[in-house]
Amino acid sequence: MKLNILKVLRWVLIGLLFVAVIGLINQVGLQRIRDQVDQFGIWAPAVVFGLRFTSVIVPILPGTAYAVLAGGLFGFAQGLLIVALADLASCTFNFYIARRYGRGLVERFVGQQFMDKVDRLGRRHLERNVFLMMGLLMTGLFDFVAYAVGLTQTRWQTYLLALLVSILVAKPLWVAAGAGIFEGSQLFLGFAILGAFGIGIITAVVQRQPNE
């Protein structure tokens, strides 16, 4: 029951952030916001990078909204670069923390209430099935998956390969959604819708895989 409440709260936070960002854009104007963001130079992308990075390290935080925000503020190409680098750094960090320090420190980051989710993912023998690992890294559980894989005997080279492929396939989705919504681009919105459909299929397939 507590887990369901936290899950609902997480999506409520994402929704509120979406509403706040879209409301701000409608009131001020996207170009004016981008002009003000440009004045911060490298610090603007660095802030979004930091927010996305932190939301993966501490999975309770709504990281999806920051991917959409990156696409809206910086455009598809730069936004995707920021999100991809943040996810590569944070998921590698998650794996290292789990591998180096074990469950004790992982629990400090995810919280006791979410350790059961990490343990369930770990019991799916991800070290034996790189395609299942890759598929789960493409879903919304990717932050927990990174911790779970670190607690297995998976080689870091195998994990890194799966992570890179998952980033290339899945991360453009939310960035394109942000670029499409805020720029009114039908192309990006169409790409995001098709991507969401594909990720939904992947999620359904990997979640049906039995725990061996």
Structure, briefly:
By secondary structure, the protein is mainly alpha-helical. The chain has helices at 2-28, 30-38, 43-57, 64-101, 103-110, 112-122, 130-137, 142-150, 156-183, 186-208. It has one domain.
What can you see in these coordinates?
The protein is mostly helical and 212 residues long. The protein has one domain (2-208). It is 83% helix and 0% strand. It is built from 10 helices and no strands. The chain has helices at 2-28, 30-38, 43-57, 64-101, 103-110, 112-122, 130-137, 142-150, 156-183, 186-208. Helix 4 packs antiparallel against helix 5, helix 4 runs parallel beside helix 8 (142-150) and helix 6 crosses helix 8. The longest helix is centred in the middle third of the chain and has 38 residues, at 64-101. It is elongated and about 50 Å long.
- Beta fraction: under 5%
As for the number of domains, it is 1
Biggest sheet descriptor: none
Distance between the termini: 27 Å
State the shape.
Answer: elongated
Low-confidence stretches: none
Number of strands: 0
Main attributes of the structure:
single chain; 212 residues; mainly alpha; 10 helices; 83% helix
Secondary structure layout:
Layout: H1 2-28, H2 30-38, H3 43-57, H4 64-101, H5 103-110, H6 112-122, H7 130-137, H8 142-150, H9 156-183, H10 186-208
Helix pairs in contact: 3-4, 4-5, 4-8, 4-9, 5-6, 6-8, 7-9, 9-10
